[in-house]
User: Fold these one by one.
Assistant:
Number 1:
Amino acid sequence: MQFEEIFGDDEEPDEFDFVIDTHRRRFVGLLIDTSRSMALAQTGGMAAIDALNLHLAEWLPKVRAEGRGQLRDVEFVVITFGAGGVAVASGNRKPSARDDGAFVPAARLTLGPLEAGGATPMVEAVDLALDLVEQRRRHVQEVHGQQCGGPRLILITDGEPTDFEGNPTDEWRRLAVRLQQSRETGRLMLFAFGVPGVKDDVMRELAGEEGYFRLQDLDLKRVLDLALVATAEHVGYRRVADKFEDGF
Amino acid sequence: MNRDVWIVRGDGTRTPDRLGDPVGSVGSQGEVRQLEGDPGRIAKIVHHAGDLSDRVRLMLRDRPGWVTRAGRPVVAWPDAAVHRSDDGRLIGYAAPKLAPPRFVPLPLLFNPAVRARLLPAATWTWWLEVAEDLARTVHAAHQRDHVIGDLAPANIFVSAAGTACLIDVDGWQLRDETTGTDLLCAFSRPEYTAPEELGKPARPRDPASDRWALAVLVAQLLSLGFHPYGGVPFDASGPVEEVDNVRARRCRPLGARVRAPRGAVPADVLPPVLRRRLAEALDDGYDRPEARPDASAWAAGLAYSRRRLTTCERSARHVHAVERAGCPWCSMAAGGGRDPFREDL
């Protein structure tokens, strides 16, 4: 006796409706730096933003496949900061925590091509992510009766926080306090991945020593692979650090 | 990464092989790779396990007969050590590969859309069979003085025939019969961890901790994936997870009033005999681990329940306990949820 039909590797389960079928959900905010430096930096003979789009195109089907099983309870919200200021790139692309808003189940996560340009309004992007995941938690627990654990934010950057004009700002100090409070009372986990150009001391203040992962080169494929590990259930900073230190 | 390895069996024979593509989910404990020289086997690479060589030695010393039943595996027991070919370092172990079309990971079948495609004709009987088979395997492990520890859906594969197979033996609390000592279980998922072990560092565990997890799992299986400690308290003001309800003793099938999704299986789906077992395990056994029914008692209760089933008038696929006043699957559909055993699926 065997199972009837197995999914093909390239088949995307976009018909899956998760709204009522699971007793819990988890929220993952993916924050991607799309500032000007991502257009200027080069990796593998192309602009960093082009490399990122290329790797995202390979990464997204993996996320959707995991969305059938291990990531079945996960909803993503993707926020970019750089070109166009702070923008929601997932779902209906609006900063809405309602159903069919910015959050989409892992099995249905798609993204259009990202563009690079402008300043690095990282602080505003993280603030927006924190607001949205909290609003989404309330909505899902109160309206759908589904449990929501602590949210996870995954931050990918090659720069330092600026205002919308590109001037360095100290606003990240206030954000660091907010993040610490969210870790303590809201069970937040923040995984920050820095690639060359990043401001290490700022990232350590935001993500803490254990939540900050500094890559020596602009290996965006590796960043995305680590981000997927950081999305998995029961994976803490230590497990990501293990994968970070040796791929074996 | 050097992918060339030696596969070293318990009798010392060595064969060269090569690690292939990753198998399974990214967040799994350790990393699982296909063995290129043998499509039926995988290598599990274990990260940073200090006692790996002791574990592998123990697992290989005697491949126990009880890990197969009626010619099928019930535990994917390791059968060789895996060493790097360049420096000889021990990095993990080899074990049978569980894969479609014979086996799929249990969590996949908690997803109704996947279930409708993989098991279109299954009824509630299939879930009772899986639960009973799992209970028999847990009982067999306990008879050998092992404690499974991380007894959770992510470590269970199931077959279309209603059988279960456990994976990740390296995470068990393994008994060394020659010395009488145990290698400890380092990790268990909190939503399946007995209250006396929650938040505690690794320490010797009693089989009663598995009996807690088994009770949770049986309730979850018979609720098609809905965890017995699922649901949101009406006065919740922050994140809520299963473990919060465990700590507050809020168990929905035992009568706790919580907000649950529209599509949740009714809280009273269990027949009286299994509800009693559940109360003994999770209520009486909450702070008295010795009160929890052992795995053989669960297997007997499940076998008994399988003989006391009926179908409703609306659908031959609506199988439920004879003691239940109405059909739970009809009441789900009537309550605005989805009929999980619809005939047109």
Note: Chain B has nine helices and 15 strands.
Number 2:
Amino acid sequence: MSALLSVADVHISYGKVEAVRGVSLEVAGNEIVTIIGANGAGKTTLLNAIMGILPLKGRAAFAGTDLAPLDIEDRVATGLSLVPEHRELFASMNVEDNLELGAFRISKATAATSLEKVYALFPRLKERRKQLAGTLSGGEQQMLAMGRALMGAPKLLMLDEPSLGLAPIIVADIFRIVGELRAAGVSVLLVEQNAQAALRIADRAYVMELGEFVLSGAAKDIASNERVAASYLGFQHEGESAI
Amino acid sequence: MNTTILLFLLQDGITNGAIYALLGLALVLVFAVTRVILIPQGEFVTYGALSYAMLATGQVPGTVQLAVGMGLVAFALDLFFARKALRARLVARSAALNIAFPVGLLAVTYKVAGPTTPMAVNIALALLIVAAIGLFLYRIAFQPIAHTSVLVLLIAAVGCHLALQGLGLVFFGAEGLRGPALSSAAVTAGPLRFTGQSLAVYGLTIAFIVGLWLFFGYTKTGKALRATAVNRLGARLVGIRTSLSGQIAFLLASMIGAISGILIVPITTLYYDTGFLIGLKGFIAAIIGGLVSYPLTAIAAILVGIVEAFSSFYASNFKEVIVFTLILPVLVLRSLAAPAVEEEKD
């Protein structure tokens, strides 16, 4: 099976500073892939560049289409969707309007079924559908951001730190839903600092350090890797330093 | 002063205020969606008014040729920016909008223009011409620099204003023009006499405000425009083209400007440069509304109209001074009330 998203030898710079160097990555259909790494490793930069928010050097293709000439809006139309770290909701509009706009590019009939699905995944959003997005709690805003992205019926959902700043019980809920997405036929590319939770639901993982992938493989293997365990999972093995 | 004069002045103020309200709403709309402070709004008013007035005398206004010229430039820009991924559909769409639409308009105008053309046709033509100019103005002057700062956009807006005003002199000459009234009917209520024209002003203003409210509250496009205003990146991430939102905002603003012009040109003589002053008064209302609030802008516009009416009665030499001085206390209050805001970086 060919990869849904394939990124090869990508470099991304902010002016003269190269934030991502020579990174290659693949996500197949029905797969959850996670990128873990410390703050500032370049994970968010990579997602933003794949979405078209930042320019990248290298090859990036999605569903067989070269992404280079496409704007953000065109990438959305090919079935690529990003839930950014800051969520970027329409704060002064209500939950239902936010969701409705998530389906901006698709037909009304498809949007109606999408809405049903999103409300089934996030019953909380249905309860709050007339509330303004800006007045929701952090967890609800994250749910709304994911719901809005799902309204466009994406093939690949890229999630940037969905658990950031949320209560553990909500984090568990969000990771459970990410797991359910795979069953619904949506691939997920998940960037997380909460490596433990991410590795538990992911099929494969990449470990990013200072703009490069230092390790990749099946999530199970990564989780049991000593260096990863020491650096990101908080376990310490005999004779190993935590750094 | 007696009650009759008071009522007259109020009536006059409200009629003018209604026009300022329309213009103020357009300014708020454009600023919210594109961050452009639309200085050329006044030119949309003059172009609409004077194109209508010229059409009414059976002449073809130069604005229609300008629309064709701007369309050609817009088409060239579309091709240039899409040169890396030129697709037939894109070219066809761009050609239809930028070439076929204004050329069609030109052809129709030449065909139907004459002293006996029905008023409704003249109004429709004037509206469409100005709408095309507004649309292409965004494409040519603002879309390529949409991501720059508010200041750069403002400078571009001033440039557009000067260019359009100069072209206005070429098209309409230095002499003022008046257009035929929409209706010669009049209603008398007590000491007040409402002309059909002023009733049309009230009616259309209210219709536009209600229409805009429905558009933004209940249509997908309207909501997408609001979303662009609230969060540009968020809008792009759901696939809303911010350039399209900008075009729609300019289209609405130019049509609102043209309507305002067509409404006032039977009441006052308009010159090629009158629009600027009228637009500025809408701008004052928009500033009082903080460039964000539609209802506040509408109320402020009525206030501006009333202040103008009374000051032209008491101190007509200082009419404009008094009106524009209104903005000072508002700015002082706003700057005291609001914390310093740094412009967003993106």
Note: The mean pLDDT of chain B is 89.
